[in-house]
Write a structure and sequence with these properties.
- It is a single chain.
- By secondary structure, this protein is of the alpha/beta class.
- The chain folds into 4 domains: about 5-145, Rossmann fold, CATH 3.40.50.12160; about 150-280, Transcription Regulator spoIIAA; about 285-400, Transcription Regulator spoIIAA (2-Layer Sandwich), CATH 3.30.750.200; about 405-460, OB fold (Dihydrolipoamide Acetyltransferase, E2P) (Beta Barrel), CATH 2.40.50.
- About 35% of the residues lie in helices and about 20% in strands.
- The chain contains 14 helices and 19 strands.
- The strands form 5 sheets. It has a 6-stranded parallel beta sheet with strand order 2-1-3-4-5-6, with helices on both faces. It has a 5-stranded mixed β-barrel with strand order 15-16-17-19-18. Strands 7-10-11 form a 3-stranded parallel beta sheet.
- The longest helix is centred in the last third of the chain and has 24 residues, at about 375-400.
- It is globular, with a radius of gyration of 23 Å.
- The structure holds iron/sulfur cluster (SF4).
- Iron/sulfur cluster binds near residues 181, 188, 223, 224 and 261.
Length: about 450
């Protein structure tokens, strides 16, 4: 449960802070792409005079930016919608649902939450100001959920994304939207549409402006980010070329990207990670399963062997490269033996970390319709085994780093102790160390003094 929902539940109507007209609050679930959309929606609202609210209870405009990748964030969104019913005593409140759930389940939202003013799909963010203004004048449910698509050389109606963005040490920059891979468990191609790349010039300009404003590290976002550059009007631009072009921006120190797709991970990208000093030596390469049959059923377009070839090549060319992955257990039909193949793969690769999930049924996907769903108890059990294994491996890898010297980008104070700064190493290790706030936004050399499963403690050199 989010802090906001807990707050809402614990505050009686009489005690609620007064709504402030002209303010907005966006509750976000899901991936960095959603975080980026939230930022963009905030800019749109500020463009028509709204200001951020201190909390959800004070906001005149409440937007839920939703995620459909798993069932849990959808349940949370419906739960928060239920909790917002009492706020409808104010006729001024405007309530909208955006993001992937709005795209995929607009009619269900309308049925289950009739107090919602509008649902806005992922391809229509630019319509937000008009929807809010209309909702303020007349209470009539509105649905805008056209599937996102390329319009000339303008992708997502946001050719000028960088305008008005606040300066941050680290910024996310979407470079590609949608997906053409159609994994059988995934709703993204339905909610985000077909793969579209942003024009290279727009990306370079956005990153240049961000770097001049103080951003030192960008993370390039795309569902299959390394397939960037197809179908651009200016012709194909390989992802590795984009990385080299970005590396020429003087104030930018670091470049990351997420998530690459294994089949499209070619030699030129490995060479770029090896040779381009601003591209970090970390690769988050989703495997999803360590069993070939499961990969086929998931419609993942690679085999375990071809995946391992990439891993081996990365380790050969870039010693010490950080490797992380995504894994799903309990995909429909997964046998004990197939699950054990995933465990074996994890032992074989020894990732630095992994995002591990039990398969969650997504209505409207081929896997969601299958009759051979794995019982919840088995999924939970497999997930627990996998997490135990990965935690052990991560602890062992991190312990071996004690004494190592790392370069860290200082992001800011840790939540627990303001005198302790935190940041990530080039290999994507979270590091904590004592330092003064003047170091924020700068690179620091640190020596690792201790290790945990979540990261490393260190001292400044
Ligand atoms: S590659 Fe597969 S999992 Fe990733 S967004 Fe595309 S369809 Fe979904």
């Amino acid at each position: 449960m989010s802090a906001q929902t807990a707050l809402l539940r614990n505050v009686s109507l009489g005690e609620r802070p007064k709504m402030r007209l002209g303010t907005y609050f966006i509750q976000t679930w899901g991936c960095q792409m959603n975080e980026e959309d939230t930022e963009q929606m905030g800019l749109y609202l500020e463009g028509i005079g709204f200001k951020p609210a201190a909390n959800i209870l004070e906001a005149q405009v409440i937007l839920l930016n939703t995620c459909s990748v798993r069932k849990k964030p959808e349940d949370k969104a419906f739960s928060l919608l239920g909790e917002l019913v009492p706020l409808r005593t104010s006729k001024d409140l405007i309530l909208g649902v955006c993001g992937c759930m709005a795209q995929a389940r607009a009619d269900e939202i309308r049925r289950r939450a009739p107090h919602v003013d509008f649902v806005l799909g992922t391809g229509d963010l630019g319509l937000l100001p008009g929807l809010v203004q209309e909702a303020a004048q007349k209470r009539k449910f509105q649905k805008r959920v056209s599937l996102p698509e390329r319009k000339g050389n303008v992708v997502e109606d946001v050719p000028q994304r960088h305008l008005g963005r606040p300066a941050k040490v680290k910024s996310f920059v979407p470079i590609q939207y949608g997906c053409d891979k159609f994994c059988t468990f995934c709703i993204v191609p339905t909610t985000r549409g077909r793969e579209r790349s942003r024009p290279t010039a727009d990306i370079l300009e956005e990153v240049r402006v961000l770097a001049e404003a103080g951003t030192r590290e960008v993370t390039l976002l795309g569902q299959t980010v390394n397939s960037y550059g197809k179908n651009l009007l200016e012709g194909k631009v390989p992802f590795s070329t984009l990385l080299w072009q970005l590396s020429e921006i003087p104030d930018l120190k670091r470049i990351r990207y997420t998530s690459p797709y294994p089949r499209d991970f070619k030699a030129d990208l490995i060479e770029t990670i090896r040779d381009c000093p601003k591209v970090m030596e970390h690769c988050h390469l989703p495997i999803q399963s360590g069993d070939d049959e499961m990969l086929k059923e998931m419609h993942r377009l690679y085999s375990v062997d071809s995946y391992l070839e990439i891993i081996d090549e990365l380790r050969r060319e870039i010693p010490g490269v950080g490797l992380t992955t995504d894994v799903i257990v309990g995909f429909p039909g997964e046998t004990d033996e197939q699950f054990l193949n995933t465990m074996r793969l994890m032992e074989r690769v020894r990732f630095d970390g992994a995002y591990m999930f039990a398969y969650s049924i997504r209505p409207g996907t081929p896997a969601g319709d299958r009759k051979d769903q794995v019982p919840e108890i088995i999924k939970k059990n497999r997930l627990a085994q996998l997490i135990d294994l990965q935690n052990r491996i991560t602890c062992e890898i991190n312990a071996k780093m004690i004494g190592a010297t790392l370069e860290v980008l200082v992001e800011g104070p840790s939540a627990k102790d303001p005198s302790v700064m935190q940041g990530y190493s080039r290999e994507w290790k979270m590091v904590h160390f004592k330092a003064s706030p003047e170091r924020i936004g700068r690179l620091a050399q640190v020596r690792v003094t201790d290790s945990r499963v979540w990261g490393l403690s260190a001292e400044l050199i």
